[in-house]
Amino acid sequence: MKNSYNSNPTVCLICTNADTAGAPLHVLALVQHLQNKFNFHCIFGETGAVERQLRERGVEVTVVPELRSSIKPLQDFQAWRKLRTLIKKIQPGLIHAHSSKAGMLGRLIGRQLKIPSIYTVHGWGFGEGRPRLQSFLVEQVERFLGYFCQDSRYIFVCHADQTQALQEIGVSKNRGRVVWNAVDDHGYRADPGASQSITMAARVAYQKDHATLLRAFNRAEFGHLLLAGEGTDSPEFKRKIIDDAPRRSKSITPLGRRDDVAQLMGTSGVFALCSRYEGLPLSIVEAMCAGLPIIATDVGGNPELVEHGKNGLLVPVGDVDGWQSAIDAVADPTIRTRMGLESRARYEKDFTPEALISAVAAEYELAFGKCA
């Protein structure tokens, strides 16, 4: 199907969130690099920084407020109905969904309207860290959609997500491919040997497990901890800092939400991510771009980014002693410098946008070829 105002085929991108998190930034990157080949109409469940940037680029954007992550049957039905009406009006040649709820509704509507669909999995909505009932429901829906939407393709942002799909919901390997997340070079270069700042950029949420990092930092001797992200400057979180890290609370700076995280990384000595679960976090890729050593939990796609002992250190989830040891291990500036150089080399080899864009464009061409 073609858009009326030029000859390029139209892709409908659907994403639940529009903030500067992984999935929305992934959507932004696709549009920035592929806008000359495809028309895009983007649908989000909220307003936000990425939604505004896309509008500024002249991209058609629609917000459907009912499209939210939480499971609410009535609201989800309203989201499905609005999305279906909107997509029938847009008449795209392809639906490309990001995030669990958008992936569910996008594939279902694609099946109903006979429009090819792709679902990019930025971490599954079931498993570790989710409420048990929600996890069960999401897994069952994914099993159903995997069977019902046989023509839908998957893009996995890491091998860990693909393995979970194969083993837990029965997705056959020929229905998708792994395409690592990537970021444009932001241009900020750290001198990790000269800085003692440890930066973690993450919103305050159960997933991000700030408590483990704070308790470990309280025991460690090295560094000044910078915490950037939604909620880190709230009164409640500041009290948590004092409760969890009383000995070293004065060496912790809560920064709140920041729009200059890449610049912040450029002045840091170490990047930390203490998540309980992850897909392939863009924040680590951005830190590698800056040439920082990484301390991260050994979950999801993190081991695909961080080679333990080479460009960083991997720690088991919730392991306060392990985090303390890792923080103290990078107190040596020569170790930070060596690991930072390895991070930058790994970014340049595997995580620049070229491979990502080429792979996604090939998936688009395949889909349009089938519906031509």
Sequence-ordered SSE layout with sheet pairings:
Elements: E1 10-15, H1 22-34, E2 39-44, H2 49-56, E3 60-63, H3 73-90, E4 94-98, H4 100-113, E5 117-121, H5 132-148, E6 153-156, H6 159-168, E7 176-178, E8 197-201, H7 210-219, E9 224-228, H8 235-244, E10 252-256, H9 261-266, E11 270-273, H10 282-289, E12 294-297, H11 302-305, E13 312-315, H12 320-329, H13 333-350, H14 353-371
Parallel strand pairs: 1-2, 1-4, 2-3, 4-5, 5-6, 6-7, 8-9, 8-11, 9-10, 11-12, 12-13
Provide the domain count.
Answer: 2
Instruction: State which percent range the strand residues make up.
Output: 15-25%
Let me know the number of strands.
Answer: 13
Shape: globular
Instruction: Please describe the biggest sheet, giving its number of strands, its sense, and whether it closes into a barrel.
Output: 7 strands, parallel
Residue share in helices? 40-55%
- Reading the helices and strands in chain order gives EHEHEHEHEHEHEEHEHEHEHEHEHHH
State the CATH superfamily name of the largest domain: Glycogen Phosphorylase B
Give me some keywords for this one.
372 residues, alpha/beta, Rossmann fold, 2 domains, 7-stranded parallel sheet, 6-stranded parallel sheet, 13 strands, globular, disordered N terminus
Structure in words:
The chain is an alpha/beta fold. The chain has two domains: 10-182 and 352-371, Rossmann fold (3-Layer(aba) Sandwich), CATH 3.40.50; 192-350, Rossmann fold (3-Layer(aba) Sandwich), CATH 3.40.50. The chain contains 14 helices and 13 strands. It has a seven-stranded parallel sheet, sandwiched between helices. A six-stranded parallel sheet has the order 10-9-8-11-12-13, with helices on both faces. The radius of gyration is 21 Å and the shape is globular. The N and C termini lie close together (8 Å).
